[in-house]
Write a structure and sequence with these properties.
A two-stranded antiparallel sheet has the order 1-2. The protein is elongated and about 70 Å long. It is mainly alpha-helical. It has one domain. Helix 2 packs across helix 5.
Length: 143
């Protein structure tokens, strides 16, 4: 049930803007696919928390989502990014290896790993763009 609720997560709390609109269309609907039932079940079996499942897996995760999206928005000036760069961020956010679970924080993103992966992804993208521009210039020079 919580996985279905994740797909209905509201981002109203984050305000308005291009980045939030992009996430509403491209991130939120895919959010429940990030966590398999098997992984959820594994975390739940090993949990010794006295908190409700909804608190551990929905409320705390939603809080983590808000926190990470706010951080990304301010750090990368995300409302000014192009669609391709926004897709890169969504791809990183949907990477299930960045999700962690513990009894105190519930389901949450590993902030450090998330930021590192965004930086690596952006750097890789810039390298690819640079190579494409160099190749284009070489073709122009040859002609």
């Amino acid at each position: 049930m919580f996985m279905r609720r994740l797909s209905n997560t509201s981002l109203e709390k984050l305000g308005e803007g291009r980045f939030v609109d992009f996430l509403k269309e491209n991130y939120v609907p895919k959010l429940s696919s990030v966590i398999s039932f098997e992984r959820f079940d594994y975390w739940l079996q090993d949990s010794e928390s006295i908190s409700y499942t909804g608190t551990l897996f929905y409320s705390k995760f939603k809080k983590s989502i808000y926190s990470e999206i706010s951080e990304i928005r301010s750090r990368y000036n995300a409302d000014d990014l192009n669609d391709y760069e926004l897709k890169l961020i969504v791809t990183v956010l949907l990477n299930s290896s960045l999700l962690h679970f513990d009894d105190a924080r519930g389901l949450h993103y590993n902030s450090e790993s998330l930021n590192d992966l965004i930086i690596k992804t952006f750097n890789r993208n810039q390298d690819v763009n640079l190579v494409e521009r160099i190749n284009t210039k070489l073709v122009e020079i040859e002609n």
